[in-house]
């Protein structure tokens, strides 16, 4: 495929057509923070930490770089007061769930996020979906999935599959940005107390 | 009435069918149209319809009188509605026991029944004809008007008013490019929320590479308090189908889906019947009107998720997945349903299309403002005298909608705010009532056209609570995929809830503003990006209410339960014992001839005492931000004379 | 619901994986919930992973993974009803039944639910019991309506 030339943080960067802005930045050695991104998985666009500012046709807007395709002559900024403010806010929201996550603590330092900005929220899961998507897309086992929606959304292992498959795999654990606490916990819970098949 | 049964294999055959259907409609023939929309059905219109059918049979009038059960007439406040033509006599709040009288008096003897007419609450003047009622008089019902003239379950009725003529024009007179150009020239903008120019959207899909293209009708009307799409789909499904067919010819699509909420069973039913009848007549399916053009339309029921109104979430749902939006670009026009170019428009948008093709873009564009053309149907609800669906030209001042059409605020209360645009919209104060209705006009002041909900609020409505209500709604309806929406709304909801409970903190407004910016800028889809609007607009126009809650622990509207106390005014209490007996927590002390006093420690603020206190005593008060006065001393609590007379 | 009835529903949609939600809606309408055995059959026949079925069954409000009560009460919490006092109606009903929205009592008598808008805004506040609409409610009137359902 032909290359597309765009500008990231003042640098001319070439990227293959169809690549994302995040891909292009990474290839050029420009670091954009991410939580839910994984190079072997389809773009998800859930954590929004990778927001960058785009300038095209005189308009500025924020987009998630992990899901935004490169376009010719795109002008991208990966840091600005606004971007930093948004990232700080996002990290603060996630710290309400997982205040002791190493990855989140690093990000908090970088963006000056206050771990007590918001009231603690139940569960350490930050819904990055890495475990769910890895299990479905790479392992094709579907042993863990999401249930419910909005603020009640959770990850949940299916005991029937998990009891068969998970003991020998556990490849999703190290992907978890909350230090695999949540996946491990939910798996153990599902195996120890399997719900009746008809309920969640 | 015999049905048109033959497949229409040419334009001439369609014209012939239209003429036949129209000629069966003798304009001088007595016709009874009874509203069978969901709103009227909820107030027993079914019984009224049955009563008419029985009564006409009993009086031997079935041949002479045409009876029609139609879709929504719009004046839901006064349903069930019955209109008798050709005189256009309009009867409101009709009950089954009125029916024999209507048949023998109005139908047989041509007399008007006075007590069933509309009475102007201010002047006491009565209106006989529907079009004389102020509610209707000030509207422009070009899209919604035909509802009254057709039985949605009979395609002949739609043909009788010239139905599918625009389709024939699109198939035989216009090229796809000319159709797109016509829609672009009309400046029609999407009626579903964002107001994107429809013709431009069509052009994207038309130009997108690929042979397979899909069209989608978005009837996932989820805004609480908005039901115009349902009423169109229930009352005039063929106008939507015809619009889609014209779109199909324009963009080159052969398959479409109608995504309709399963909470709308009548819409699903009438749409299904309409599709079946259109297929029978060769207006849908293969070789439409002998043109060789093929288009199939399928119904997909939504399973209850507000977010599916967002187009990418809707597509996920159509594919049989959870309705989680996907990032755009790629836009559906390029990669939509099953990866194919897809054009999605809202019900009302599609219903406008035949009108534009029939009347021409110039006629359409002559209505409205510079950037908003045509009409818009609004559902005017809340604290308003005339609840209902109203269709008005773009550019009409909000004030006219509320007062001329809506009849103002009932119960002698004062207007406080108007909420437009549903959970993505905002609340506008009295000072903005002269604003002309239009997409950009509403966005500029922090609200939105949205799908057309207009919720009127009076001075008893707390604006902080309204913001909390919408954020609560959205925390339930967020898909939960992205952090700014899911987590941001969770925290916004907590903060707004504590403010309404009198536990607000000084930095709460700053925190809410921070969360709002994050959601607006960083959310994945429009649900999250617009979610802070109800908060931001109430903060912009009603900041004093937030401050009263936080600083004085006072709810100026006397609405937030945790911030109010109920108090019986000893000067007005006549010791009638009603509240004392009804109080569910026995918090009221008193007796015969003994002034009642609320024990604040026992009171749960349920409001029953206020509700049951006879209007002539009007002794119960709500207080907020002030201490409850101490009860009168014991020796002053006895009422002389007969207890329960003022 | 027997497996044959479910198989018939699946056949009606030609076993298309994309018809998953339509199939589940029909099962829900017939059984008033989604029994586990039915879901397993759907997963197998439509070749859809169970994890997605469970996500859908919990994502969309029309579905229930537990049996519903004999009487289904839907209290409208739409904006028009809200400003006309719907929260107080709901509160009275939760007090009366001891149920929170979404819950069913142990005898499977009543399921209490909230809905976003029933589109009968002129009648607000509104509740629907077993498909019958009750409008212009006060908390006391709502409680009286409930007492008529046994």
Describe this structure in words.
The complex is a heterotrimer of chains A (200), B (646) and C (150). With 200 residues, chain A is of the alpha+beta class. In chain A, 30% of the residues lie in helices and 18% in strands. The longest helix of chain A is centred in the middle third of the chain and has 15 residues, at 81-95. The mean pLDDT of chain A is 90. Chain B folds into 5 domains: 25-132, Glutaredoxin; 162-365, NADH-ubiquinone oxidoreductase 51kDa subunit (Rossmann fold, 3-Layer(aba) Sandwich); 375-458, Ubiquitin-like (UB roll) (Roll); 463-551, de novo design (two linked rop proteins) (Up-down Bundle); 564-636, 2-Layer Sandwich (Alpha-Beta Plaits), CATH 3.30.70.20. A 5-stranded mixed beta sheet of chain B has the order 12-11-15-13-14. Chain B has a 4-stranded mixed beta sheet with strand order 2-1-3-4, covered by helices on one side. With 646 residues, chain B is of the alpha/beta class. In chain B, helix 10 packs across helix 11 and helix 18 (463-477) packs antiparallel against helix 19 (483-500). The model of chain B has no long low-confidence stretch (mean pLDDT 94). In chain B, 38% of the residues lie in helices and 15% in strands. The longest helix of chain C has 12 residues, at 20-31. Chain C has 150 residues and is α+β, with helices and mostly antiparallel strands. Chain C has helices spanning 3-12, 20-31, 36-46, 50-59, 79-83, 86-97, 139-147, and strands at residues 71-76, 110-115, 127-129, 132-134. The chains are: A alpha+beta (200), B alpha/beta (646), C alpha+beta (150). At the B-C interface, helix 2, strand 9, strand 11, strand 15 and helix 18 of B face helix 2, helix 4, helix 5 and helix 6 of C.
């Amino acid at each position: 495929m032909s290359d597309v030339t765009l500008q990231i943080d003042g640098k001319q960067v070439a990227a293959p057509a169809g690549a994302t802005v995040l891909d292009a930045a990474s290839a050029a050695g420009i670091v954009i923070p991410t939580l839910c991104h994984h190079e072997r998985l389809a773009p998800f666009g859930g954590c929004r930490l990778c927001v960058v500012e785009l300038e095209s046709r005189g308009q500025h807007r924020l987009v998630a770089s992990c899901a935004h395709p490169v376009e010719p002559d795109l002008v991208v900024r990966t840091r600005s007061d606004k971007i930093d403010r948004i990232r700080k806010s996002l990290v603060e929201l996630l710290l309400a769930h997982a205040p002791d996550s190493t990855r989140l603590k690093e990000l908090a330092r970088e963006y000056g996020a206050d771990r007590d900005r918001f009231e603690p929220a139940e569960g350490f899961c930050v819904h990055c979906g890495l475990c769910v998507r890895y299990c479905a897309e790479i392992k094709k086992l579907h042993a863990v999935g999401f249930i419910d929606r909005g603020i009640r959304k959770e990850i949940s292992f299916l005991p029937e599959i998990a009891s068969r498959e998970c003991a020998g795999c556990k490849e999703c654990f190290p992907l978890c940005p909350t230090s695999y606490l949540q996946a491990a916990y939910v798996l153990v819970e599902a195996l120890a107390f399997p719900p009746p098949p008809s309920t969640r | 009435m015999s049905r048109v049964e033959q497949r229409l294999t040419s334009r001439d055959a369609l014209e012939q069918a239209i003429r036949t259907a129209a000629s069966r409609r003798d304009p001088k023939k007595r016709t009874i149209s009874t509203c069978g929309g969901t709103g009227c059905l909820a107030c027993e219109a079914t019984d009224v319809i049955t009563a008419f059918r029985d009564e006409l049979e009993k009086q031997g009038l079935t041949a002479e009188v045409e009876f029609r059960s139609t879709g929504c007439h719009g004046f839901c406040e006064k349903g069930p509605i019955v209109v008798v033509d050709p005189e256009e006599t309009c009867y409101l709040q009709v009950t089954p026991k009125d029916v024999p009288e209507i048949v023998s008096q109005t139908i047989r003897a041509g007399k008007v029944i006075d007590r069933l007419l509309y009475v102007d609450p201010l002047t006491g003047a009565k209106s006989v004809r529907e079009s004389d009622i102020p509610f209707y008089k000030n509207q422009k019902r070009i899209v919604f008007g035909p509802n009254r003239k057709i039985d949605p379950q009979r395609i002949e009725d739609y043909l009788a008013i010239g139905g599918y003529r625009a389709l024939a024009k699109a198939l035989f007179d216009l090229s796809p490019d000319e159709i797109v150009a016509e829609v672009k020239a009309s400046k029609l903008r999407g009626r579903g929320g964002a107001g994107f120019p429809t013709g431009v959207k069509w052009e994207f899909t038309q130009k997108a590479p690929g042979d397979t293209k899909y069209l989608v009708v978005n009837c996932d009307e989820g805004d609480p308090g908005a039901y115009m799409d349902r009423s169109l789909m229930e009352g005039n499904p063929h106008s939507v189908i015809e619009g889609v067919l014209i779109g199909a010819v324009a963009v080159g699509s052969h398959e479409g889906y109608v995504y309709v909420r399963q909470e709308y069973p009548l819409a699903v039913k009438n749409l299904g019947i309409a599709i079946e009848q259109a297929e029978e007549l060769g207006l849908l399916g293969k070789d439409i009107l002998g043109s060789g053009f093929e288009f199939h339309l399928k119904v997909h029921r939504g399973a209850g998720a507000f977010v599916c109104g967002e187009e990418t979430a809707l597509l996920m749902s159509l594919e049989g997945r959870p309705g989680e939006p996907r990032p755009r670009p790629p836009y559906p026009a390029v990669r939509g349903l099953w990866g194919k170019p897809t054009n999605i428009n809202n019900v009302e948008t599609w219903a406008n299309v035949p009108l534009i093709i029939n009347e021409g873009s110039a006629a359409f564009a002559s209505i409205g403002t510079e950037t908003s053309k045509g009409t818009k149907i609004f559902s005017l609800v809340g604290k308003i005298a005339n609840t209902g669906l109203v269709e008005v030209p773009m550019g009409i001042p909000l004030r006219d909608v509320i007062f001329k059409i809506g009849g103002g605020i009932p119960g002698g209360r004062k207007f406080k705010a108007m909420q437009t645009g549903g959970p993505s919209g905002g609340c506008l104060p009295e000072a903005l009532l002269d604003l002309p209705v239009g997409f950009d006009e509403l966005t500029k002041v922090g609200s939105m056209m949205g799908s057309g909900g207009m919720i009127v609020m009076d001075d008893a409505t707390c604006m902080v609570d309204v913001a909390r209500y919408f954020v609560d709604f959205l925390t339930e309806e967020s898909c939960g995929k992205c952090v700014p929406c899911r987590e941001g709304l969770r925290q916004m909801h907590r903060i707004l809830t504590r403010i309404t409970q009198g536990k607000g903190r000084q930095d709460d407004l700053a925190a809410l503003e921070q969360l709002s910016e994050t959601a607006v800028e960083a959310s994945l889809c429009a649900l999250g990006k617009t979610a802070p609007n109800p908060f931001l607009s109430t903060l912009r126009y009603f900041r004093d209410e937030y401050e009263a809650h936080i600083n004085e622990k006072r709810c100026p509207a006397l609405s937030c339960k945790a911030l109010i106390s109920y108090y019986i005014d000893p000067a007005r209490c006549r010791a009638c014992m009603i509240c004392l007996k009804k109080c569910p927590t026995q918090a009221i002390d008193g007796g015969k001839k003994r002034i009642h006093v609320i024990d604040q420690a026992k009171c749960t603020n349920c409001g029953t005492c206020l509700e049951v206190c006879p209007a002539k005593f009007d002794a119960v008060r709500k207080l907020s931000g002030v201490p409850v006065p101490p009860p009168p001393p014991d020796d002053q609590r006895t009422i002389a004379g007969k207890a329960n007379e003022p | 619901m027997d497996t044959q009835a479910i198989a018939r529903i699946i056949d009606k949609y030609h076993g298309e994986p994309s018809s998953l939600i339509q199939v589940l809606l029909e099962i829900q309408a017939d059984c008033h919930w989604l029994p586990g055995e039915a879901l397993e059959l759907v997963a197998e026949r439509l070749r859809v992973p169970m994890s997605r079925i469970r996500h859908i069954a919990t994502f969309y409000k029309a579905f229930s993974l537990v049996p519903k009560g004999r009487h289904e009460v839907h209290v409208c919490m739409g904006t028009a009803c809200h400003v006309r006092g719907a929260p107080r109606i709901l509160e009275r009903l939760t007090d009366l039944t001891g149920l929170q929205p979404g819950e069913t009592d142990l005898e499977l008598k009543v399921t209490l639910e909230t809905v976003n808008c029933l589109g009968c805004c002129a009648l607000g506040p509104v509740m629907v019991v077993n498909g019958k609409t009750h409008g212009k409610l006060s908390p006391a009137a709502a409680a009286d309506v409930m007492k008529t359902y046994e």
